[in-house]
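re: that chain from earlier
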Amino acid sequence: MVALILLLGVLIVYPLVMVIFGSFKAGGPFVDAPFTIQGYQDAFSHPLTGQILWTTLWLGIVRAVLCLVIAIGLAWIVTRTDTPWRQFIETAVWVALFLPYLPYVISWILLAGPNGLLNIALMNIFPWLESPPLNIFSYGGMIWVTILKWPAVIFLLITPAFRGMDASLEESSKMSGAGTLTTLHRVTLPVLAPALLAGFVYALIRIFESFEIEMLLGFSEGIFVFTTRVYMLITHAPTDYPQGMALSSVFLLLILGLILLQWRLLRGKQFTTVTGRGFATRVARLGRLRYLTLGLALSYIFVGVIMPLAAMVASSFQETLGFYGLETFTVRHWQYTFSHPMVLDAIKNSLVMSVSTATFGVIAYVLVTYIVIKTKLWGRKVVDVISWLPWGVPGMVLALGLLWAYIGGLPFKFLYGSMFLLILVNVVVYFPFGCRVMTGPLYQLGKELEESSRVLGASWLQTFRHVVIPIMAPSIVAAWVVIFMLAMTVLTTIVFLFGPTTMPISALIFDFWLGGHEKVKAVTVGVLLTFVILLFALVGRWIANKAGGKFTAF
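^ sequence. v structure.
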């Protein structure tokens, strides 16, 4: 435990200490400058700070709650009902998850911007409309794009827990006279509380630190949130690191508060559903209502997946964004994508980084979460807190802390720009996510399964390998795929760390978009990235089928 705490301290706590240290010194922690609290004074005396923090809070909470409701509905439809086409629905939700973030936001600008396809279509259908009825550059637009993209992430987190619930619990409820919705509210959701709470907290924190949606859809309209304010302080001249880091301290306190809240809500409660006795998983019979649930799921898929994906693909074959027609059709952007060495190298770099991050990360996350939940070792609460800390600051601020910690303050400058550093940073960044994915299944795992194995003479390692890992396989596979996807599309946390030979594809897309005239190439490379990730998802499904459906997260 001492070794584990020290290791996590070096990997996670030390970079965050650099962030706090940097808030007291202009230019960063290793700049020859006196200590000062001017950054805190400037941050909390600025007239916009209160408004920005309030906007971040209410906008984040509203979006997280809506995303959780949609994710619960989709997970319940797919895993606990007899709704038709459930496998198709689940696959389509995974496609929504895999759509790269930046191109996805751009696709909705193409659809619902002032000259977007939807606005043009609506004004042609309803001639009395004098101005575009849809405005994506607004609070409503930011909420809309978020609740279409983020439910897929929460869906992936909670689906294994839904599948791992013993059907006898719900059957007992119905035998007592409860209906389907009452059973969902009074039995299913309370039993799944750890997984649901982990999914909600994860979504809330990631939405709080979201940058792309707020920057592209709100910044130009004067809508500022925490991340866009920090971005301005760090990147716009004159830079103000102390004030940006001081604002980040508020975020860290908020995350610690959420951790304590989760502990309080789960303290003293039992959520075991997978035990050594009989276990059954059956779906609820909805009758005619199954067509209503099918319609709701298909509506989400059409609006959240098909429309933006079609806009992305169609735009990649146009000479200029926003102008569609046979006269502007071209394949030169695709010719450039498949022939330019810079694009091919970026794809290779992203694949190496993502596969390595997912593999080494999942191993670490399973072991750490097991120690926290299934053991009585002293210090496990400390480990739990440390595993949450990377969520305590926005990605770009954490990137600076990691840069200062691993390069500026230690004699490891040769690591700058290396693939090893990118993999290490990603493993650290996704520690909270990986551990939260494992939380729900481990809470549901009854202790008698491990005890029976130990009584029969198995060692702890044999029990862990032959009992715990097989039962957790859906969550492990799901975590690997999602971390792979996140690492393939990550930008903010590695924006300061990659070198000329290790540039990932996400950074290349961002460079193309900032280039102005290269925006169509950004969309084209984004479409390619989407299909690369989808290819890995299909390979995962093939592996699942070869395993006899064992990995039901697929």
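The chain has 25 helices and no strands.
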